[in-house]
Amino acid sequence: MIEFVINVVLLSFLVLLALTIARTKDLLSSVMLCGLYSLVSAVFFVTMDAVDVAFTEAAVGAGISSLLMLAAMMVTSRYEKANSIQPKAALVVVFLTGVLLFYGLIDMPMFGDPNTPVQQQVSSHYIEESMEEIGIPNMVTSVLASYRSYDTFGETVVIFTAGIGVLALLGGRGAGIRKPSSPAASRSAFPDHLILRVISKLLIPPIMLFALYVQFHGDYGPGGGFQAGVIFAAAIALYAMVFGFERARKRFPLPVIRFVSAVGVLLYGSVGMVSILNGHAFLDYHALSANALSGQHLGIFLVELGVGITVTSVMILLFFTFSERAMQSGGQE
Questions:
Q1: Hey, how many other C-beta atoms are within 10 angstroms of the C-beta on 321?
Q2: Any idea of the CA torsion for 252, 255, 256, 262, to the nearest 10 degrees?
C-alpha cells in the first residue's frame, strides 16, 4: 500500500511538472523544471529497483543536459516569442500521439506479469547465467557491455555523431582555432563571488574523482562509461562557468577534445576488430584472453573506457561550442 501511494505521488509530480513546463514561457524556468522532472524520474526508477537507470537519469537528465540547455540559451533569448507555435495544431498532434500509444498498449502484457516471454526466457538467462558467463557482480554492466555490446557501440557512435553535428551547425569553419580573446571570454564568469570560487575549487576535484570511481567501479555497482562521462564533463563545465570560458579552453583545447572523442569510438571498435582478427565474432571478448572470464573482464574494461572517453569529450565539446558561439554573438553585438 505504501509503495502504491509513493508511485501515485511521484507520477502526480511528473504530470504536474510536465503541464507546468508546457505552460511556461520562461525558457530558464523550463530548463530548471526539466532538471527537476529528471530528478523525480530518477526517484521513480529507484522505487522500481532500477538503480542504474536512475543513476543515468540523474547524471544525464538533471546534470549535464541542464548545463547544455543553459549554454544553448546563451545564443537565444530567455523568453519564448509570442505566437511562435500553433497551440491547436500542437494539441491535435499530441492527442493523436496519445491515441496511438494507448492503442499500442493493447497488445502489451500487464506490468510485472511473470508469464511474459521476457520474464521466462531472456531475464532468467541473464539472472542465472550472467555470473558464470561474464564473471562480474553487476548484471546491468554484463548486459550493456557484453550481451548487447553491439547496441552500446551504436549508442557511442550516435553520441560521437551528435558532437560532429553540433560542430557542423554551430562550430563554423574556424571552430577550435585560437582567436584573439574578447573581453567577455577572457574575464571570469564570477569575478566577485569569492565564496563560489573557493567552494568550486573544493568541489571540482572530488567530482572528477567520483567520475573515475563510477567509471572503474561499474562492474560492481551502478555506473559505467556513460554516467562517468557526463559527471566528468559536468566538472569541466562548472570550471568554465565559474573561472571563465577562455581559461577553461586553455586547459582543454577544442582540437584535443575533438581528437579524444574519436579515440574513444576507435578504442571501442578496435576491441571488435581484434576479436575478428583472432577468428571470433565482432566484440567477442573471449578472443582477448585464453581464460574466458579474463577476456570478458578485459573487453568490458576497454569498451567502457572508450564509452567514457567519448561521452566526456563530446559533452565538453557541446558545452564549449555553445559557449563559444555565445561569446562571438556577444562580441558582434
A1: 25
A2: 130
Instruction: List all residues 6 or more positions away from 144 whose beta carbon is below 8 Å from its beta carbon.
Output: 152, 224
pLDDT tens, residue by residue, 41-84: 999 898 888 888 898 888 888 888 888 888 888 777 777 776 65
- The three cell numbers locating residue 108: 502489451
Residues 228-243: tens digit of each pLDDT: 999 999 999 889 888 8
Nearest CA to 325 out of 11, 33, 23, 72 is that of 72
Q: Helix crossing, 254-277 with 149-166: angle to 10°?
A: 150
Structural domain including 237 reads 137-333
Task: Give me the torsion for CA of 19, 25, 30, 33, rounded to 10°.
Answer: -50
126 lies in some domain: no
Helix or strand or coil: residue 65?
helix
Are 89 and 189 part of one and the same domain?
A: no
- Cα angle 93-97-100, degrees, rounded to a multiple of 5: 145
**Is a pLDDT exceeding 90 seen at residue 220?**
no
pLDDT of residue 49: 82
